Amino acid sequence: MSKVWFVTGSSRGLGRHFVEAALSRGDQVAATARTTESLDDLVTAYGDAVLPLAMDVTDRAAVFESVERAKQHFGRLDVIVNNAGYAQVGAIEELTEQQLRDQLETNLFGAVWVIQAVLPHLREQGAGHIIQLSSAAGLIAVPLGGAYHASKWALEGLNEALAGEVADFGVKVTVIEPGGFATRSGKNPDPLANGHVAQPDPIYDGLRQRLAGFAGKQPAGDPAAAAQALLTLVDSANPPLRVLFGLGFYPMLQQAYADRLQTWADWQDLSARAQGEHSVA
What we know:
Layout (H helix, E strand, L loop, with lengths): L3 E4 L5 H12 L3 E6 L6 H7 L3 E5 L5 H15 L4 E4 L14 H29 L2 E6 L12 H21 L4 E8 L26 H8 L10 H13 L6 E4 L4 H17 L1 H8 L6
Parallel strand pairs: 1-2, 1-4, 2-3, 4-5, 5-6, 6-7
């Protein structure tokens, strides 16, 4: 049985590949982007199976309107992909208030508006699958990525809570944590070279130089393969709450979680003292 998708950030990158994969197997897609010109070729190829919607995820009213249009056009919504987002780069001290607010408005609040708009429809259907694109950056943090990490770590907690809230309505939630994917010019994008970089303070130049050897150097995944993996995920009767797309960061994640557990264990005496004299043995 074909599915109806609602995908944000459909103009390029993983979002574009997700839309193409869904359409190519006969599904229908409401594809949103800030401007829809980049989706014209999909309309030519797939006709009424694709509904292009001009939408800025930071505009709550526009998000609700687009969801309503998609529901009216297709009659139902099955797979919701919260994909729109970007990475703001800069040391915490370098970030302007507007840069931090803009990062959270797009990556966090934009996802919340989509969730709030689709949930009444999914509850009414008694079914649906919300896919949240997070990142390995939602599980670990590195210098110069504080704003981006803040948005992705927030999405991790938000969607874990959401999964418990909507399970009784038949709605599933999965957080996808991609590593690096070759979404531009066949290469793994270098976040230190993108357009969202805070005004650099020379005091952090040494740190930037050290990180430059790592940034964008993880093995680049194939976006088309990620799209096929997503199809398998949405067809699963029991999808996971979290899943990595790509294994490049897996060893680092294993070490990070092992270190956290060890640190908590090493400081258990202090934790017990912090509980006070009424602590239970």
